[in-house]
Specification:
Undecaprenyl pyrophosphate synthetase, binds magnesium ion, 252 residues, six-stranded parallel beta sheet, 8 helices, binds 3-methylbut-3-enyl trihydrogen diphosphate
Length: 252
């Protein structure tokens, strides 16, 4: 036990030394996956994995803020996740409220600004209220932006943008051809730079309808670690790995 603690302390020191604080990714997006498998492999109900996953969210938000990340976008519930059994959906829908109840004071203190990306209208009232209250309470904060993707699906986000554009064009508010910059401003992530780094846990290597437009040139980092076991060391490893890469954007 103490050996492990010592190992991770040494590893943290090493990573702290290796990470260039001037070159941390501005925007990190995370597909937090593997809660269910984490629980089942321990003989626990899936809910236990989600409960533990919230603990990881706390740790990772703290660590990202400390590392100086400007924007952290967390995929918490997809438009496709409604297809899960009602007991699981209900449990997942109870988590935002719990999270904000315990974390909001610290988020406020740390100058974090909470935002929701996704179709809020279809969320249960108590979930919408929890996130909206969190956003409202942190609206004027100027530190890290913390985006929660809840009832988020990228294709529906893109279609929503297209439909809003059609409406505004018909009303004469949008004229001529739509360029990439204008299009981006119709997405939930309007005004934010695209993710520099996408992390997905649990060994799956797919995007699962997350930020299809915004991830065009993001660096991808996958780990087999399940989300409840994902720690600040893993986040630091991902950041360090990101810093070792050469982003070319099609150029030489
Ligand atoms: C991620 O964990 C949480 C959500 C998708 C809401 P999962 O619940 O997908 O866990 P696995 O993939 O079944 O292990
Ligand atoms: C993606 O995970 C959605 C979230 C993490 C919220 P899923 O577990 O739903 O993705 P698939 O179904 O394995 O692609
Ligand atoms: Mg999953």
């Amino acid at each position: 036990m103490w050996g492990l603690v010592l190992d991770s302390t040494i590893r943290e020191k090493e990573l702290t030394r290796k990470i260039d604080p001037e070159k941390v990714p501005r925007h990190i997006a995370i597909i937090m996956d593997g809660n269910g498998r984490w629980a089942v492999e321990r003989g626990l109900p899936r809910q236990e994995g989600h409960r533990q996953g919230v603990e990881t969210v706390r740790d990772i938000v703290r660590c990202a803020e400390k590392l100086g990340i400007s924007i952290l976008t967390l995929f918490a519930f997809s438009t496709e996740n409604w297809q899960r059994p009602a007991w699981e959906v209900n449990y997942l829908m109870s988590l935002p409220e719990k999270y904000f109840q315990s974390e909001l004071p610290e988020l406020i203190r740390k100058n974090v600004q909470v935002r929701l990306i996704g179709d809020a209208a279809r969320l249960p009232r108590k979930v919408r209220k929890a996130v909206e209250d969190g956003s409202e309470a942190t609206r004027d904060n100027t530190g890290m932006i913390l985006n929660f993707a809840l009832n988020y699906g990228s294709r529906s986000e893109i279609l929503r943008a297209v439909n809003n554009l059609i409406k505004e064009a018909a009303a004469g508010k949008v004229k001529g051809q739509v360029d990439e910059k204008t299009f981006s401003s119709y997405l939930y992530t309007a005004g934010l730079p695209d993710p520099d780094l996408l992390i997905r846990t649990s060994g799956e290597k797919r995007i699962s309808n997350f930020l299809l437009w915004q991830l065009a040139y993001s660096e991808l980092w996958f780990t087999n670690v399940y989300w409840p076991d994902f720690s600040k060391l893993h986040l630091m490893e991902a950041v360090h790995d990101y810093q070792m890469r050469k982003r070319r954007f099609g150029k030489l």
